[in-house]
UniProtKB/TrEMBL annotation:
It comes from the Eukaryota. It comes from Centaurea solstitialis (yellow star-thistle). This is TIR domain-containing protein. Keywords: Leucine-rich repeat, Plant defense, Repeat. The keyword Hydrolase does not apply. Residues 1-143 form the TIR domain. GO terms for biological process: defense response; signal transduction. It holds the Pfam family NB-ARC.
Amino acid sequence: MNNTKSPKIQTTHATCNQKARDFSVIQSEAIEESRFHVIVFSKNYASSSWCLDELVKIMECQMMKTRQAVYPIFYDVEPTHVRKQSGEFGKAFSKHENDENAEKWRQALVKATSFSGRDLRNTADGHEVDFIKLVVTDISLKLPVFSADENLVGMRTRVNDVISSLNAAPNEVCMIGIWGMGGGGKTTLARAVFDQICNEFEGSSFVENVRESSTKPLLGLKSLQQQVLRDVFKRQDIFINGVLEGKKEMRKKMHGIKVLVVLDDVDHIDQLKALAGGRNWFKKGSVIIITTRDEQVSHDVEPIQVDLLSNEEALPLFCMNAFGTQIPVQGYEELSREVVSYAADLPLTITVLGSHLRGRNTCGWKGVLESLKRMPKKEVVDMLELSYTILEDNIKEIFLDVACMRLHYSIDHAVFILESCGHFEARCGLDVLKEKSLITISKDDEEMVMHDQIVEMGKNIVRRPNRKEPHKHSRLWEDLEIEHILANDLGTEAT
């Protein structure tokens, strides 16, 4: 009888040991593959050899210089007690004094307390709910950006800046506008922020191409209102019959839920009023983000201007699209710098050209660079030109003069020159161009600057009707063309 049971008992022990080993392997792999390690130290933490073994593994990963982050939380225990294994924490650790792993555990505890974290006892007056919110914010700012775009470069700081603005008043309805020129990365930034924080809300919606969709006969603003409600409440049986009804439904339904809504490419105040009428539509803690080229589309929204890429960020972004790595392939270093210089730090141009040049040989690259000097890429021009097409006719003329004369003067001097050309509303016109992100004005010396790609877009508009006949252009800026036209008396009569 004993002989028949003994093998079963041994088999059971063997199975348990195997399961323990398997679980240990799984846990070890989970630690190695994690991006972030949150360690919660309590008074009884050190009583568990399992927890201490996990801590040793986490610290070993740090020794390997992985990109993992460590965030210690001290829950009702002093950091010094953890570091020195003293106080209540020391009592819990004392049961391991004779364990062969004791010294290894001590070293891991000392190292873990060297990382920046939070202590409940001196944070948020000890209120756990507020403490947890602060921890979530800390971790959000340190986590990598998770986005559908795998080629994001130079976005970490910008994402952190936006999230910091959102966290300034966590118990209020926050409405911000990401504002800047076309192709400057507004949508990419908004998407990266959305992807990172959307899980913190009860409902969320990212509405793309508001400008374009709101004018389509079969879509319109009521369709966008319907999309927001369906996204937020995860229901497809919500239908809107008209914009006015949509406003009422949104105000009634959204007021009871904490939401994140991103409205991408808003170009008219009516769009904003229909989709995010005011802070009183939303529950406190909700966040509304819009992207726009027009500073005037404010409607009680705090504008945040998007900075273009720095030189250090532009080259890696281009290389990611051209080569799949953040550094140029050997033999393409100088050509890559030439392309980035042409793009003048504009993310759209950098991305388009990187994808266009991918897989071409150096001769192909040189050919593309030569052609760009005569004709910018259509994808880039079309995107940038959207800001031009919505201008009033008189403002369009001011814009083309600025682009073709390439004015880099103080505002007063620029106004003087433009008024000399017959633009008596020049100052007002420059204000409009600034609002539409077509020019920038430096704060220090009030100098007016137009981005290289915007200049190219303006010149392309002038050339387009008679590209091969410069004497028919409304404006001239190339010295050789001007000399040829004057020498051959090809100029047209003023009208």
